[in-house]
Design brief:
By secondary structure, this protein is α+β, with helices and mostly antiparallel strands. It has helices at 12-27, 33-43, 46-52, 106-120, 135-143, and strands at residues 2-6, 58-65, 68-76, 90-97, 125-131, 147-157, 160-170. Keywords: Ribonucleoprotein, Ribosomal protein.
């Protein structure tokens, strides 16, 4: 059984812990251990997550599988990208599943949920960035009809960035 619920600021600690684990699982080898740990501590701490709830364009959702937390997503409505000419578009800022829950179609369910939410808000498309070396994620988004629209350097630290694709799904 799959449940997707809207998160609120009270979920900040849970989201921070999920983000720390899932980012480490998916990107932990993309930079030095020190750079990754510092990025995680800076970006995925409870207070940083709690502050994001102040932005009314941001929505977090939690996905549960058989009543066990499996991952989360974060979208930002009305978030333009210089690589995309369309107006009124949504950024899929985060969609992370714990490794133990991958391969159960939960990513598809969470992505479809966010696309439907974006469409309901009269958005014209949804975009994201994905690490160029994360072929599993690139294949997933390509299968879901996203197309590469540009490039983006994802800053891990002052001395390290990871090359990313900007991928876009036009509605």
């Amino acid at each position: 059984m799959v449940d997707i619920i809207k998160a609120n600021a009270e979920h900040s600690d849970l989201i921070a812990k999920l983000a720390q684990q899932t980012f480490s699982e998916s990107h932990g080898h993309s930079a030095s251990k020190e750079d990754i740990n510092n990025f995680i501590l800076r970006t995925y701490n409870t207070e940083a997550i709690r502050k994001e709830f102040e932005n009314k364009q941001v929505d977090y959702h939690l996905i549960y599988f058989n009543k066990t937390i499996a991952g989360f997503s974060k979208i930002e409505l009305q978030c333009p990208n210089i690589n995309i000419n369309d107006k009124n578009i949504t950024k899929l800022d985060r969609i992370y599943l714990l490794e133990a829950f991958q391969g159960k179609q939960l990513g598809v369910k969470l992505l479809d949920f966010n696309i439907a939410l974006s469409k309901k808000q009269h958005q014209n498309g949804i975009w994201l960035v994905v690490w160029t070396e994360n072929q599993k994620a690139i294949n997933f988004y390509t299968k879901m009809c996203f197309e590469i629209a540009g490039a983006y350097d994802f800053k891990i630290s002052e001395t390290h960035t990871n090359p990313n694709h900007v991928m876009y799904l036009k509605y």
